[in-house]
Amino acid sequence: MTAFGWFQPSVLGMTGQSRALEVISGNIANVTTTGYKRSESSFQTLLSQSWAGPSAAAGSAPVTFQSDIAGVSTVDHLRASDPGAIKGTGRDLDLAINGDGFFVLDDGAGGNVYTRDGAFSIASVSDPTAATGTGSAGYLVDGSGRALQGWAYTGATAGTAAGGALGAMRVDSGAFTDAGEPTTAAALGLNLPASDAVGSNRTYAMGILDSGRSPHTLDLTFTKAQEANTWALLVTGDSGETITVTPPSTDAGAAMGAGQALSFDGTGSLTAPSTYTIGVTYADGATSNFELDVSQLTQFAGDFAVSGFEQNGRVGAALSEIEFDSQGHVVGVFENGFSRPLYTIALADFASPDGLDPLSGNVFAASAASGVPILGQAGENGFGEISPSALELSNVSLEDEFSRMIVTQSAYNSSATAFRTIDEMTEAARDLKR
């Protein structure tokens, strides 16, 4: 090594420690950045080679080599595989991945980037085809406006990693509507007073939806019969409606809409029938056909009291809000209270997540070192589950970073001292010739 080479290890040492301090500073600056992944600097030895002896010619002695330690170089390592703590936020559009995987984002240039930062929002973009008055549509995006990617449902089935194209997820109120459903099943629970006199009437107004999803009211009239523990049932509606009840009443001259009498045992429990099938034709041509479950009817001493009524019909409605579950389903909640899955959020994993390339905006790009992305759904095939209303915090530990900073500063000062000592030695050697 030449005299000038004496300075090289010290210069490279200071350069390397400067780079390490730069990485530490970046980690500390991002200690509160959601989903941030810290980096570390490691060092590797550099060798220089010198040789002595004649040139390698025929009959000459072989060239001899000597290796000298010439300093260090730095290598940065991303710690993307180290998870950060998950903290609840209470915000509906915040998502965290509890386990392996990255959210997939559209980079706006025909490719994808990946992130663990789940602070999403709904961005309104111009869309002339949107079925809204403003000609705009709302999509789930990250803080930089990159669209979150997922698979859309078709009917009751979602696309999967094995089939179905990834795409942006539109979730504004005009994106989806629920067509509603007519009433096909209903259940009624009430108590008919055992002390009522023969001929006493009790009425309950039952709301249902017809084949056009329009609401109607049918009156159920219960009449105490002559036979002990027996009540007649009559179903009536508005004028012009035709109503049939099955099983029908067996009484001679029973009115249309009369059903088989309700029978109770000595303990007040219903013995027959447990269900009625009711058919209605309305004046406007709409129809209703549904099964009414009356198995919860009782005849106890006390008042006429309704314990519950349910029916499965619903009116059409627009999308009201969205929710998320642990498997990454985007669930739409409609104004009529009905909910159904709209999308499945896509997750990506890599053979070596620490080989990803960090980009601005807290996202990463795939690289040769990371391998190609493997797509899947949360909670399946090794992917972590989604934690709604939560965010993954930075995986930076301030204690560890300050410890590294102290060691880095000491190493830099030592390299600077070595440089200064060599400089003084060379000055002394220079002065020897005077």
Automatic annotation (TrEMBL):
It is found in: Bacterial flagellum basal body. InterPro entries: Falgellar_hook_FlgE_sf (IPR037058), Flag_bb_rod_N (IPR001444), Flagellar_FlgE/F/G (IPR020013), Flg_bb/hook_C_dom (IPR010930), FlgE/F/G-like (IPR037925), FlgE_D2 (IPR011491), LlgE_F_G-like_D1 (IPR053967). Residues 13-37 form the Flagellar basal body rod protein N-terminal domain. It comes from the Bacteria. Pfam families: Flg_bb_rod, Flg_bbr_C, FlgE_D2, LlgE_F_G_D1. Residues 96-125 form the Flagellar hook protein FlgE/F/G-like D1 domain. Residues 389-430 form the Flagellar basal-body/hook protein C-terminal domain. GO terms for biological process: bacterial-type flagellum-dependent swarming motility. GO terms for cellular component: bacterial-type flagellum basal body; bacterial-type flagellum hook; cytosol. Its main location: other. Keywords: Bacterial flagellum, Cell projection, Cilium, Flagellum. The keyword Ribosomal protein does not apply. Residues 191-313 form the Flagellar hook protein FlgE D2 domain. PANTHER family: FLAGELLAR HOOK PROTEIN FLGE, FLAGELLAR PROTEIN. A flexible structure which links the flagellar filament to the drive apparatus in the basal body. NCBIfam families: FlgEFG_subfam. Belongs to the flagella basal body rod proteins family. This is Flagellar hook protein FlgE.
